[in-house]
């Protein structure tokens, strides 16, 4: 049978347990609004009993541990879902910026309207071409203005997308810095948790703080975690450790020259201040992936579409314009496009142009000082055999005098072709089934090869009388201006079978469709995250009602144990002060 002092200790153990319960309950209540806090609970077990006969006799209770209420599996699922949500939200923001510019709802504000006005200006000019009247002059000026407006809209559209891409780079650089800071802090808490839990205690609050850091990192990039036996957490990005126990590695934003200087993401080992491994393709969710995806796929795809639009506008217009005549013919002209090396064949990379050249013939027509045609020089072109140098030689020899006859050709700066005729003569181009004139930009209306470089050719910009409206230069001949104006009706995009207007409309519709699809994903992911958040809060969240109940429970237990100790104390008093007094 236990002695009276052992019974006293049983009451004391009850007081200690009740006091600890009140302490834990108070901690929960104090942190009811603390971000990332997980509810804690007391684990109570009985003390080792007194093993005597009859018995055994219980010796009270003790606190075995203070446990953190958490669900690791649910938390990982929530991190993954949140990472996907942040991906779609960031992608949504990028698409919103692009959609704002390509808004064709406001009349006269978009590229589509500028395109219509451009073709209308050609149509108006065709009604008076090649007239030298004041009305025709005004129409040529108007055409130049509408052309420059269209070019500016194309440039602005391309640049607006590029600005969003550059903003993505700024965000990526900031995210890299933020991830590195988070990694350092996670590594710090890993060390503290391991040190605390080595003695068998639970680092509940530090685990909450580490979990909060993991959640923030998962919003930026896809992560996987692995907890060691000592409580330290290893964190991986696509299988590469960004945190390894108490060691934090680093990410680097490194310019990629092959991608116009946009950033790639590199990993670097601890204590080596140098980018080592390119992990860009290992990033698959989070805000950083959204910036990479938008920058290199979605937005770059939009730019490629604008490039295709501008490239075809340049090519189809120049193919017609180069074979026409304005109010003036020229005595010399230099192409706007050149080759890297004029010695290489057109079919070889250093000798290639941005536009394809076919096997065929182009014709140079020469006129005397009276404006009468004197010669037609047909120049044969075979891209598998000819180079720019060989074409120069053929042109110079076309009149039978390679050393200085009526017509000569030269290699100009930048690998370009220059053609000139003898004083008193002028020339034009009248036929071309090889596409070399348009490929070289020889007497094209536009120069450049894409949305970024499209411009008006200097020859028409500086003197609008060089705008080609006529095929022959004869009065009433408006074939060239009419043919260019009719391009708006032609299915110029051969593979797609659409007109310029249809192509651009499809492009704008694609942007709107992409944005709408992402909006749908955002809504769906938000719902999933909300559901997982509610489920995790049910596990780890602090309920004030439950804590008030626990507070009353531990308070009553404390009072009961105190009353128990009072009873034992009275027994001791009777034993000590009330015995050994026989006969008093």
Walk me through this protein's architecture.
This protein is α+β, with helices and mostly antiparallel strands. Among the domains are: 97 residues, no CATH class; 142 residues, no CATH class; 112 residues, Immunoglobulin-like, CATH 2.60.40. 50% of the residues lie in helices and 15% in strands. It is built from twelve helices and 17 strands. The strands form six sheets. It has a four-stranded antiparallel beta sheet, covered by helices on one side. A three-stranded antiparallel beta sheet has the order 7-8-9, with helices on one face. A hairpin with a 3-residue loop joins strand 13 and strand 14. Helix 1 runs antiparallel to helix 12 and helix 2 packs antiparallel against helix 11. The longest helix has 64 residues. The two termini are 31 Å apart. The mean pLDDT is 91.
Beta strands, count: 17
Structural class: alpha+beta
Strand order, largest beta sheet: 3-4-5-6
Binned, the helix content reads: 40-55%
Distance from first to last alpha carbon: 31 Å
Oligomeric description of these chains? single chain
| Largest sheet features | 4 strands, antiparallel
Count of helix runs: 12
Report the mean per-residue pLDDT as an integer. Answer: 91
Strand content: 15-25%
Quick one: overall form? rod-shaped
Low-pLDDT runs of 5+ residues are none
Order of helices and strands: HEEHHHHEEEEEEEHEEEHEEEHEEHHHH
From the alpha carbons, calculate the radius of gyration and give it in angstroms. 41 Å
GO cellular component, one term: bacterial-type flagellum hook
Subcellular location: Bacterial flagellum; Secreted
Protein name: Flagellar hook-associated protein 1
Organism: Deferribacter desulfuricans (strain DSM 14783 / JCM 11476 / NBRC 101012 / SSM1)
């Amino acid at each position: 049978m236990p002695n009276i002092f052992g019974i006293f200790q049983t009451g004391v153990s009850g007081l200690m347990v009740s006091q600890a319960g009140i302490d834990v309950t108070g901690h929960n209540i104090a942190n009811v609004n603390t971000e990332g806090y997980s509810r804690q609970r007391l684990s109570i077990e009985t003390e080792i009993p007194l093993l005597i006969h009859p018995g055994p006799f219980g010796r009270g209770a003790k606190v075995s541990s203070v446990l953190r209420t958490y669900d690791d599996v649910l938390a990982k699922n929530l991190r993954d879902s949140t990472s996907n949500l942040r991906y779609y939200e960031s992608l949504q923001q990028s698409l919103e910026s692009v959609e704002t510019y390509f808004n064709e709802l406001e009349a006269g504000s978009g590229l589509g309207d500028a395109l219509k006005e451009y073709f209308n200006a050609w149509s108006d000019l065709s009604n008076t071409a090649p007239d030298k009247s004041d009305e025709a002059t005004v129409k040529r000026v108007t055409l130049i203005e509408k052309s420059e407006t269209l070019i500016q809209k194309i440039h602005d559209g391309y640049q607006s997308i590029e600005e969003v891409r550059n903003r993505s780079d700024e965000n990526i650089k900031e995210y890299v810095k933020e991830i590195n800071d988070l990694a350092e802090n996670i590594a710090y808490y890993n060390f503290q948790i391991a040190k605390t839990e080595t003695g068998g205690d639970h680092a509940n609050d530090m685990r909450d703080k580490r979990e909060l850091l993991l959640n923030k990192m998962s919003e930026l990039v896809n992560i996987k975690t692995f907890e060691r036996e000592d409580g330290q957490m290893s964190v991986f990005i696509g299988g590469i450790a960004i945190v390894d126990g108490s060691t934090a590695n680093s990410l680097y934003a490194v310019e990629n020259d092959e991608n116009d200087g946009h950033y790639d993401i590199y990993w670097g080992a601890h204590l080596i201040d140098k980018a080592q491994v390119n992990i860009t393709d290992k990033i698959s969710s989070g805000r950083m992936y959204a910036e990479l995806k938008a920058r290199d796929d979605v937005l770059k795809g939009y730019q490629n579409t604008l490039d295709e639009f501008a490239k075809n506008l340049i090519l189809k217009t120049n193919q017609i314009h180069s074979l026409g005549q304005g109010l003036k013919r020229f005595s010399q002209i230099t192409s706007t496009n050149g080759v890297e090396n004029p010695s290489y064949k057109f079919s070889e990379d250093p000798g290639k142009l941005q536009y394809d050249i076919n096997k065929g013939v182009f014709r140079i027509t020469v006129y005397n000082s009276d404006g009468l045609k004197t010669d037609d020089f047909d120049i044969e072109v075979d891209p598998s055999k000819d180079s720019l140098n060989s074409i120069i030689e053929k042109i110079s020899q076309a009149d039978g005098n390679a050393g200085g006859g009526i017509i000569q050709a030269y290699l100009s700066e930048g690998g370009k072709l220059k053609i000139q005729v003898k004083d008193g003569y002028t020339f034009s181009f009248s036929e071309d089934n090889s596409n070399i004139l348009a490929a070289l930009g020889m007497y094209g209306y536009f120069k450049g090869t894409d949305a970024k470089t499209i411009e008006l050719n200097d020859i028409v910009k500086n003197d609008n009388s060089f705008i080609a409206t006529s095929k022959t230069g004869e009065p009433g001949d408006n074939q060239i201006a009419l043919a260019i104006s009719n391009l708006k009706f032609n299915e110029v995009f051969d593979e797609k079978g659409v007109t310029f207007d249809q192509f651009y409309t499809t492009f704008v519709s694609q942007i709107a469709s992409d944005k709408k699809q992402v909006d749908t994903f955002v809504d769906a992911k938000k719902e999933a995250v909300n559901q997982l958040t509610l489920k995790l809060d049910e596990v780890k969240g602090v309920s004030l009602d439950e804590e008030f109940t626990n507070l009353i429970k531990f308070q009553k237990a404390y009072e009961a144990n105190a009353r128990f100790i009072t009873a034992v104390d009275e027994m001791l008093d009777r034993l000590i002060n009330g015995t050994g007094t026989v006969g008093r």
